[in-house]
Amino acid sequence: MSEAAPLLASLAPLLTEWLPRQRWFAGKGRPIDGFTLVAATEILPKSPTATATTPGLLHLLVRARQPTQDGTTHPTVTDDCYQLLLGVQDVLPPQLAPARIGRPAGGPLHGRTVYEGLADPRLAALLLERLRVPGRLGPLRFSREPEAKIPPDLTPRLLGAEQSNSSAVYGETYILKLFRRVGPGTNPDLELPRALAKTGCARVPAPAAWFEAELHGAMPMTLGVLQPFLAGSADGWQLALGALSVQADFTASARALGHAVAEVHLALAEALPTVVLRRPQLERLAEVMTRRLDAAAEAVPALRPYRWALGEAYDELAALGRDGHTRRAQRVHGDLHLGQALRTAADGRWSLIDFEGEPARPLPERCRPQPVAQDIAGMLRSFDYAAAVGRAAGTDWAERSRAAFCEGYATVHQDPREDPLLLRAHETDKAVYEVLYEARHRPDWLSVPMSAIHRLAGGHRATGVHAGLTRPPRTPPEDHL
Ligand SMILES: Nc1ncnc2c1ncn2[C@@H]1O[C@H](COP(=O)(O)OP(=O)(O)O)[C@@H](O)[C@H]1O
Ligand SMILES: O=P(O)(O)O[C@H]1O[C@H](CO)[C@@H](O[C@H]2O[C@H](CO)[C@@H](O)[C@H](O)[C@H]2O)[C@H](O)[C@H]1O
């Protein structure tokens, strides 16, 4: 698109105001001090026969420049790249008013109204049409599995519960996930489900189509994935809270879920390379966890008194390696929790979704093989969360669900409870991540992971001179794990 500079200049004030209000915007709480346009593609240009209500669709990749002091003593700058789908129209119909971004002053869109394009069913339908027919459009490449049958004219609806990304459901048949914070490389949420589909694993919806940006010299950047929609399903989080609200047992569901997760782990180990973790790798894993703890404690003062006690779990992990033990690592889900497991009402079968990994971690880190204990720890933490949010404190609901999950897992894979040191290290690492996540996104929920921190630290808080001190500096690990 020509006129890139005036386009960006006219959109910048609108985006500065609109972006931080989006659930998926990762840089909340820090000012935006500028934008860079990475790519602009007219998916639907304005036609000469267009009327005032004919929409245009503009695809943008923009970097938002933000200074940060988060978790570091020295200010740095982030410039995360975001994917935007902008509807453009002269007059916005009332039903699209909530999607309004604003009216650019100057530039090629001067005087027109710009809005969230996915909210407009006409534009969401257009995107599906592009995915049905493989090909290129400027820097965008649309691909489809040859055997995928994607009917035309499926009615779109934008999913209300926006999370780290945005999703649109088409005719209750397909769901398109549009990644919002994007970067070079294949997103594991495309890579892993495709690899699993090739093994015949039916626990994960297989991608039917996807689109990427191919920018000069860079690795293709995954922008969106279309996969079958599991109609009539409910996620594990809703189901667990539902059970808790009527004080019902959840062990049968947890057992079946454990079985499903173990099947996915076996299929991932079959589909993609696995590695053996020996002393250096186990020490590095412990070191990486320690660094994450230190960074989280810098950012969240409530964590500081627990640093020393929590660090013991990582020291014990490193000691495993020194004692000559080894562990296996493989590709894992990376951000497994009850919300990532869907159970279909018709057959009660569990499926797993959202293989993107923890959104805050860099892509290379999310793609590294890890012990399966990372995922298991994530799910075990989730039972704890459900019990806390569903007010099951004082009951053993979480303990019974956690045990049932492990039992189910052990029907097809190694029982995770047989490796308590590895599990404890991963559970600690997950709880530390959650403290940071809640502090940033839902401060009212901070007490949930903090009570796990207290438990995992054995109830020990450092007092006096040790409270708040950093651990002694060590040689930085090579970025292997
Ligand atoms: N294949 C699917 N079938 C049914 N619902 C789905 C499917 N994939 C995702 N969803 C729904 O969309 C929501 C968001 O999807 P998810 O991949 O977790 O996105 P995010 O990365 O934004 O959290 C999920 O919580 C789930 O309710
Ligand atoms: O689903 P996302 O990929 O966006 O994952 C992020 O958000 C999750 C919350 O929506 C967060 O999960 C934490 O809260 C859950 C309850 O809402 C709980 O079940 C999980 O155990 C807990 O970790 C997840 O950590 C974050 O990455």
UniProtKB/TrEMBL annotation:
SUPFAM superfamilies: Protein kinase-like (PK-like)
InterPro entries named in the record: Kinase-like_dom_sf (IPR011009), Mak_N_cap (IPR040999)
Organism of origin: Streptomyces hesseae
Residues passing through the membrane, by range: none
Name of protein: Maltokinase
Pathway involvement of the protein, from the record: Glycan biosynthesis; glycogen biosynthesis
Occurrences of domain Maltokinase N-terminal cap (ranges): 18-120
Key words, A-Z: ATP-binding, Carbohydrate metabolism, Glycogen biosynthesis, Glycogen metabolism, Kinase, Nucleotide-binding, Transferase
Reactions catalysed, as given in the entry: D-maltose + ATP = alpha-maltose 1-phosphate + ADP + H(+)
Family affiliation: Belongs to the aminoglycoside phosphotransferase family.
Domain of life: Bacteria
Assembly with partners or alone: Monomer.
EC number in record: 2.7.1.175
Gene3D superfamilies xref list: 3.90.1200.10
